[in-house]
Specification:
heterodimer, A: 333 residues, alpha/beta, two-stranded antiparallel ribbon, B: alpha/beta, seven-stranded mixed beta sheet, five-stranded mixed beta sheet
Chain lengths: 333, 326
């Protein structure tokens, strides 16, 4: 089911600059991660968001601070757009105490309960039941909050996706399902994995409104998310957005990317959400070269500061290895 | 007051629901059906469908919903109909409930209670009968408890709900009809300590959950042979109360572990290892174990009985251990 979303709303300069800045921050943050990973400074699995920035930047702007967010292992962009300080996200990459998960989570498990960011979940579809429960709690307590649950197209093949959509619709819970369809579950193309590749159609079979949105168009993402979140907030039950996007880099920094053609990647890069948005703002007369330079300079300074902060952060002593296995530090085995 | 294990749990549920509006019960057929084992019978009428919440057959989704709701400040009690079905929710139990607190650097506590009927002996064959309690005790981040008495059936739930972390309560299905008397003012009990259910001097019989009654029966039989057996009820499989076990074995110098789980890689293996590590020089005989036969549980009565621990097997094992070095 595809619904046209109103993107004719006047592109005001302030909104445009904020979105551009957010997307730029995510892009430059990810590029810095590549450098740091190549230098051996950060380790583990690192899944880059390059190419998908319009989704996080647009969607997060449509949420309120009271809303909850559940994310995936490709969540640097979500975390930054949710407002977790760049310093805390970078320090987590470094495994430092100052990281947003105290160094225990790393790239795939960024948490910030203060901003109701309930983590990067690295089990595909494993976050969906959590989102259901967060929404159930908000609903039972009469809180006016939406739980935004991000996941990829790969999750649609998992049982937890179907169990969760069914229950969310059955109980009319305030969940906004945000499927980032980047066409690949790691190395497996969606048409090689799913008998029905229209994920919005599949969601709509659970009796919930489901729209497909151009995930490379940041304004379309924000408008659609706002409309869906408002409908959820108004008591309309769960809603589903398929955000059609593409990752320009491999699945992770570990991945040789043998399963797709250079041509395909090149074609999608023609639709890079950053230059596309810059052009659009320029055409609307809302952006100058000086604006772009200022944003790039600010973002570069922010990332340099975050790296400095992370580098000078503290390593947790190994004597506290078992802290936070239980809430009570003295719990035994 | 005279009561049953089933009624003791129901009364604990009712009290928890009454005293804390964050508490709700969720699971398959807990409401209109009254619970697969009739534990929650009548609670729907008392507390309504929001708090006695029937869930579809979606173990992963409703257990995960319990985890999410717990993170958001509720105190969910999630019932999984039988232990074999818990495997459908293992992702949520292991990758989320047990892990979130640590992975988030202490931000996401999960005060979730899971109630899981467990165990064999009812001729319901290989997909409804296993004793996987010990498996879950392998997982750091969980607390695993096994009420085997009316006091624990009545008192463990409140303590589990007060715990800031996930607690799995394994209720052995054979215990539900067990009846006896319970103090009118029975209340919360600790979830930390093993209990000495019978004092003795010659051998420590160490067990938990569904095999406690047969172990006590075995101790009575052994008395007729002049063997004075101590019976330890572990009560909590994680964290294990090693001190109580080691103290007992250090007095009796002999140990038999009775465990309905399969022997290989079981909680009985863990208890045995703890004894070897902590009381090796106190032992007068090798540690013995009475466990389930390593087969998927068969349907036929005589085969199932042969697969499960029994009082006779406990008696035989204790006699051998005591006789080993006379």
């Amino acid at each position: 089911m595809t619904t046209t979303v109103d993107t004719t709303r006047a592109l005001d300069r302030e909104r445009g600059l904020a979105l551009l800045r957010q997307m730029t921050l995510i892009r430059r943050f990810e590029e810095k991660c590549v450098q740091l990973y190549s230098a051996g400074t950060i380790r583990g699995f690192v899944h880059l968001y390059i190419g998908e920035e319009a989704v996080a930047a647009g969607a997060m702007r449509a949420l309120t601070p009271d809303d909850a967010v559940v994310s995936t292992y490709r969540e640097h962009g979500h975390a930054l757009a949710r407002g977790i300080p760049t310093r805390a996200v970078m320090a987590e990459m470094f495994g430092k105490v100052e990281g947003c998960s105290g160094g225990r989570g790393g790239s795939m498990h960024l948490f910030d309960v203060g901003s109701r960011f309930y983590g990067g979940n690295a089990i595909v579809a494993g976050g969906l039941p959590l989102a259901l429960g967060l929404a159930l709690a908000d609903d039972m307590r009469g809180r006016d909050a939406v739980t935004a649950c991000f996941f990829g197209d790969g999750a649609v093949a998992e049982g937890e996706f179907h169990e969760t959509l069914n229950l969310a619709a059955l109980w009319r819970l305030p969940v906004l399902f945000l499927c980032e369809n980047n066409l690949y579950a790691m190395g497996t193309a969606i048409e090689r994995a799913q008998s029905q590749t229209d994920v919005a159609l599949r969601a709509s079979s659970y009796e919930m409104p489901a729209w497909s949105v151009d995930g490379m168009d940041v304004l379309a993402v924000e408008d659609a998310t706002r409309a869906a979140a408002e409908a959820v907030r108004a008591g309309g039950g769960p809603h589903f957005l398929e955000l059609r996007t593409y990752r320009f880099r491999a699945h992770s920094l570990y991945d040789p990317d043998r399963y797709r053609t250079k041509d395909e990647i090149r074609q999608w890069m023609q639709r890079d959400p950053l230059p596309a948005f810059v052009e659009r703002m320029r055409a609307a007369g809302s952006l100058t070269d000086a604006d772009v330079t200022a944003i790039e300079d600010e973002v570069a300074a922010e990332i340099t500061d975050a790296v400095d902060y992370a580098q000078s952060g503290h390593e947790e002593p190994v004597t506290s290895l078992t802290r936070w296995v239980y809430s009570d530090a003295g719990a035994g085995t | 007051m005279n009561t049953t294990y089933r009624e003791a749990i129901r009364s604990a549920l009712s009290e928890a629901l009454e005293s804390d509006d964050r508490v709700f019960l969720m699971g398959e057929d807990v409401g209109r059906y009254g619970g697969c084992f009739a534990v929650s019978l009548g609670l729907l009428e008392q507390f309504g469908p929001d708090r006695i919440r029937d869930a579809p057959l979606s173990e992963s989704a409703f257990v995960g919903a319990g985890v999410g709701a717990a993170m958001a400040g509720m105190r969910p009690i999630v019932e999984i109909m039988t232990v074999n079905f818990s495997l459908l929710a293992l992702d949520q139990i292991m990758n989320n409930a047990a892990t979130l607190l640590h992975m988030s650097g202490g931000q996401c506590a999960v005060p979730l209670v899971l109630r899981i009927p467990t165990g064999g002996g009812r001729q319901v064959a290989a997909q409804h009968s296993h004793s996987l309690d010990g498996w879950f005790a392998h997982i750091p981040g969980l607390r695993v408890v096994t009420p085997a008495t009316l006091e624990d059936a009545r008192g463990m739930l409140a303590t589990a709900l007060a715990d800031p972390d996930p607690v799995l309560i394994f209720e052995h299905a054979s215990l539900y009809p067990m009846s006896g008397s319970l103090d009118d003012d029975a209340g919360p009990v600790d979830l930390d300590r093993a209990a000495v259910r019978r004092h003795g001097t010659d051998v420590s019989l160490i067990t938990y959950g569904g095999t406690l009654p047969m172990t006590v029966e075995a101790a009575t039989t052994l008395q007729d042979d002049g063997i004075d057996a101590e019976v330890i009820d572990l009560r909590t499989l994680r964290p294990l109360d090693e001190a109580t076990v080691l103290e007992s074995v250090s007095r009796t110098h002999r140990a038999v572990i009775v465990d309905e789980g399969w022997r290989s890689g079981s909680i009985s293996a863990e208890v045995s290892a703890r004894i070897i590590e902590g009381a090796f020089y106190e032992l007068d005989a090798p540690v013995a174990r009475v466990c389930s036969a390593e087969v998927p549980m068969p349907y036929a009565h005589q085969l199932e009985q042969a697969a499960l621990p029994s009082a006779d097997r406990v008696v035989a094992a204790a006699r051998e251990v005591v006789g080993a070095h006379g």
